[in-house]
Write a structure and sequence with these properties.
2 copies of one chain form a homodimer.
Chain A: E1 7-14, H1 28-43, E2 52-56, H2 60-63, E3 85-89, H3 94-107, E4 113-120, H4 127-134, H5 140-144, H6 150-166, H7 170-184, H8 199-203, E5 211-213, E6 216-217, E7 227-234, H9 236-246, E8 255-263, H10 268-274, H11 283-295, E9 306-309, H12 314-323, H13 332-337, H14 354-357, H15 365-378, E10 391-398, E11 403-410
Parallel strand pairs in A: 2-3, 2-4, 9-10
Antiparallel strand pairs in A: 1-7, 1-8, 4-7, 5-6, 8-11, 10-11
Helix pairs in contact in A: 3-15, 6-12, 7-12
């Protein structure tokens, strides 16, 4: 697998995921605007420099009765008149798919500077309706229709599968939840930064932490979030000029060093049937992770300093731990017990708080993960900084392990 | 503007746009399957050769309560297990956006063979609800909410704008309709091939051809269609091997010679305000057309042998005529009166029948346009063949002239 041509990430911006833009009666374009103008401000780049724009969004058709989200870039700034735009979607991996599309165009020498914004406004509807909308990320007709909160149930089944193959304890899932909430408290943009949550609460089974899908309790779930995140991707030519203008060495500018992208069958039961007897529960997720490493010229996870992974539920992070190779398959609990995944551990996972702690505005998540990786490798992650992080890897998942995308971001 | 690296279009397949898959109680994945397997069969390529797959789809979230359409590729053939997939959307330009994303990945040397399928299942709902869904291609809240059939009204306004600036006669729109329906009769996959329509009917204003949006009557409208179209895009390396295996010279394999891509503001009134006093009513559409020509190394439309354009309404084709440069701005009627755009004319437009005659399954249209262009330059368009076509250009539009994509396909 050849190393990838250089695509630089000059910077970006994330909206405060604690905000309820729906309650503020603001359109999602207001979120896009704040994220994009914030990214331009942070990088000291003029709007007119942007040559192409990509939006990652899951389902504005349902949440906001609106399609054609690429075009809303033009509502952000008059300088964007005529700008080529597009929207990309792969359920909860939409943000990463948008980055893949943008970076491909840069690698193809179509453009030198691309803006990618991931956005989702989810609080336009109540919890039940929103849960139903999320069901369209699975095979709706077969896995979600008429089911209350289908996704916690699907990821509950992922836990069941681990339990069946290797054993799985609630205590380890509770620890994952605890770490993500704790990290979220260190992140000034995290949705849950002021929330109350600890290990005892995550382990409790009272009415404040009810089951909503088999072994999945409220504390195991990521959040329903209004939010946007933007990153600016550049060709080596543009990055060189920009670095010079900013007075920083090009070597200090983060790059996408590798990427992985795979799809598994839509239905969870088809995934499990396919992986029967295989080394990994979700082998295509494993391929995505290892492809990204290979393209980055990285041998294994020991060269990864931190991970921003998809913890839509604690079970998905539990799965990520062994799929990244932090432990042998089925032994994710060992990394948890050893303290490896906590801040200060060997390979901190989700120092940002992840989808559980920071929040999960679906289409924004993949972009937010890359942005947080950029902050880490620049040493600008503040209270959730992983000391000396040089390479950070993301894992963004759409559906019940259906579409996987991973990036290695480093300097 | 540099000429584009070579991306070959090895072939493809279109479903019969006259079929009502909804009435057949078939899922859209059945359409995708027929299109993809049809494309593989036509090109004698094994499913396992496909390295990446892209879906163009506008709004399955609304029509079929289903997102994550890239992943449905895996339901087509077991050989697709693990295949990287993505869905791309820009309203009615979704199919072209998917081709742009796929060709960028090939140009970036990520993959050698990509499958792109455009798909839309629209007959799952009635005309009124479907018209409302199409409103999400415009700024729904401001331009479509509570309006019956918002899009005919928006493109009626495009006609009004032409009328205001240059004058516009119903007779010329009726002629556009007549030609598209006539061409559709020659296309074995056209939705309207058995329908009754002629100039007198298009000019009639009786109850069989009522107004549904100002000057837009039923005969001015494209169709509500269930359909899919697939194309196989290849790198020069793959195309060379394939041509050798097929016993054809590489020079005879169609290529994407150039592309254009621009966006205008979402609201139609903002577009018109921006173009006040400008040479063209929709200047960003004009840029898209000329960029594609420039990238193809083509000076002007005189080197284009035929056009497959977006005639969601007769007014959009009327606009395309001068925006392609077939006439001076505002004088599209001259090309119509001269017979230039009819089959056998100087630059036949929509020999396939276009969106009016062939049908308009929204997400499939951009792919169908490229596929028909491929058929033309290979001399395989049967009864709707443009004699000696070497270069065919497409124009695919999302919203009321919002997202424009154009390809020059040639050998």
């Amino acid at each position: 697998m050849a190393q990838v041509p250089e695509v630089y990430v000059l910077g970006g911006y994330q909206t405060d995921f604690a905000r309820n833009w729906s309650k503020e009666k603001k359109h999602f374009v207001a979120m896009m605007r704040e994220a994009v103008l914030g990214a331009l401000d942070e990088t000291k780049i003029e709007p007119g420099d942007i040559e192409v724009a990509h939006t990652g969004n899951f389902a504005a058709e349902l949440y906001s009765k609106q399609g054609h989200l690429g075009a809303f870039f033009l509502e952000i700034d008059p300088a964007f008149s005529g700008l080529p735009t597009a929207r990309h979607e792969a359920a909860c991996a939409s943000g990463s798919i948008a980055i893949l599309a943008a970076s491909a165009e840069i690698e193809a020498h179509r453009y030198d500077l691309a803006c990618v914004v991931g956005v989702e406004q989810m609080k336009t509807v109540g919890a039940g309706e929103g849960g139903d909308f999320l069901g369209t990320a699975a095979w709706y007709e077969l896995e979600a229709k008429g089911i209350e909160f289908p996704f916690p149930k699907l990821f509950g089944k992922l836990g069941d599968e681990y339990d069946k193959r290797y054993g799985l304890k609630d205590e380890h899932l509770a620890e994952i939840s605890t770490i993500n909430y704790a990290n979220g408290k260190l992140n000034p943009n995290a949705q849950t930064r002021t929330w109350y949550m600890n290990y005892e609460h995550a382990m409790s089974r009272d009415e404040f932490n009810g089951s909503i899908g088999g072994r999945i309790h409220i504390s195991d779930c990521s959040q329903v979030t209004d939010g946007a995140a933007a990153v600016l991707l550049a060709s080596p030519d543009y990055a060189k000029k920009w670095a010079k203008r900013m007075g920083v060495p090009l070597e200090s500018v983060p790059r996408i060093k590798g990427w992985g992208h795979n799809t598994a069958r839509m239905r969870f039961e088809d995934k499990v049937a396919e992986s029967k007897g295989a080394e990994y529960v979700l082998p295509h997720v494993r391929s995505t992770v290892t492809s990204a490493m290979k393209r980055a010229g990285i041998a294994d996870v020991s060269q990864i300093d931190s991970i921003e992974t998809h913890d839509c539920f604690t079970t998905s992070e539990y799965m990520a731990i062994d799929h990244f190779g932090l432990t042998a398959p089925g032994e994710s609990w060992k990394a948890i017990e050893a303290g490896d995944i906590a801040l200060g551990g060997k390979t901190p996972i989700n120092p940002s708080g992840g989808l559980i702690g920071a929040g999960h505005p679906v289409g924004a998540t993949g972009v937010r993960q890359v942005l947080d990786s950029v902050k880490q490798v620049k040493g600008e992650a503040g209270d959730y900084q992983v000391e000396g992080a040089k390479n950070v890897q993301t894992l963004n998942i759409g559906g019940s392990g259906t579409t996987s995308v991973s990036f290695v971001v480093g300097t």
